[in-house]
């Protein structure tokens, strides 16, 4: 039984491969990657796999029984790329696809939702058994900004008092590995999020507590937040997208209290305090 992982050299993909190796033999895992040289040392079979090269995808998927389709990081190209992979999987005889979608993709106001929904529809139309892992926000999406916030003297954003039920990537990676190596998940849709929610004000307070430096949260209009993001070097399109995602967070689009992630893990999700501590230790 071969398990293929797309985007295996990405931040989530590497973690999934490591978690899979804890559950099955390494020779059962195949890393599907755009640049094979980046997969050196992963300890599993590596195959070239470019989401954009539809003519080569089916060949790379030969012999793969289960496929974890990690969503592409090329926003705006995802629906096409994912459809290419799904068609190739059908040609190659893949028996099951697990897809990393978006939390509450069917009613989210996040601009990312459309491409995830298009992929979900392509999976339904493919006839291949599938499972949807609708991943919530990675806590690292926010803790990556800690160093800059401390330097600037404030944590800024446009999320207001929105409730954010995030979890670190490792929790989502572990859940994916559990689904891929256990029974009873075909046809399921999992809304995956952290057990405890926080606001960005709460996040700023936690950073203040751990550093001993007073770090207020400053809520900004969407346009002002986008302007600040552009001023620190982010491309305009990406800056506007991030600011827009924060506005969606203000509407609780990143909130979920169903406990489905911790149920899959068999433990509580990693708390915010631990992810903040890890981020501070790494900076």
From TrEMBL:
It comes from the Bacteria. Keywords: Oxidoreductase. Coiled coil: none annotated. Residues 2-243 form the NmrA-like domain. Gene3D superfamilies: NAD(P)-binding Rossmann-like Domain, UDP-galactose 4-epimerase, domain 1. SUPFAM superfamilies: NAD(P)-binding Rossmann-fold domains. It is an enzyme of class 1 (oxidoreductase). This is NAD(P)H dehydrogenase (Quinone). It comes from Macellibacteroides fermentans.
């Amino acid at each position: 039984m071969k398990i293929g992982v797309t985007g295996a050299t990405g931040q989530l993909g590497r973690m999934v491969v490591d978690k899979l190796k804890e559950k099955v033999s390494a020779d059962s895992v195949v890393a599907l990657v755009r640049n094979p040289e980046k997969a050196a040392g992963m300890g599993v079979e590596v195959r070239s796999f470019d989401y954009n090269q539809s003519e080569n995808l089916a060949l790379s998927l030969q012999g793969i029984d289960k496929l974890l389709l990690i969503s592409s990081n090329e926003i705006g190209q995802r629906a096409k790329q994912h459809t290419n992979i799904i068609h190739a999987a059908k040609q190659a005889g893949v028996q099951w696809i697990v897809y990393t979608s978006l939390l509450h993709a069917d009613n989210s106001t996040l601009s990312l939702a459309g491409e995830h929904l298009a992929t979900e529809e392509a999976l339904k139309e493919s006839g291949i058994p599938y499972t949807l892992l609708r991943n919530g926000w990675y806590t690292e999406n926010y803790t990556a900004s800690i160093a800059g916030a401390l330097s600037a003297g404030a944590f800024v954003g446009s999320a207001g008092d929105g409730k954010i039920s995030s979890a670190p990537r490792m929790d989502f990676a572990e859940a994916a590995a559990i689904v891929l190596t256990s029974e009873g998940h075909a046809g399921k849709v999992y809304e995956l999020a952290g057990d405890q929610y926080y606001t960005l004000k709460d996040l700023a307070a936690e950073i203040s507590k751990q550093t001993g430096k007073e770090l207020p949260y400053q809520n900004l209009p969407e346009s002002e937040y986008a302007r600040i993001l552009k001023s620190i070097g982010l491309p305009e399109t990406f800056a506007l997208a991030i600011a827009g995602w924060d506005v969606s967070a203000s509407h609780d689009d990143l909130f979920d209290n169903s406990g489905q992630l911790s149920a899959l893990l068999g433990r509580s999700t990693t708390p915010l305090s631990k992810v903040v501590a890890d981020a501070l230790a790494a900076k």
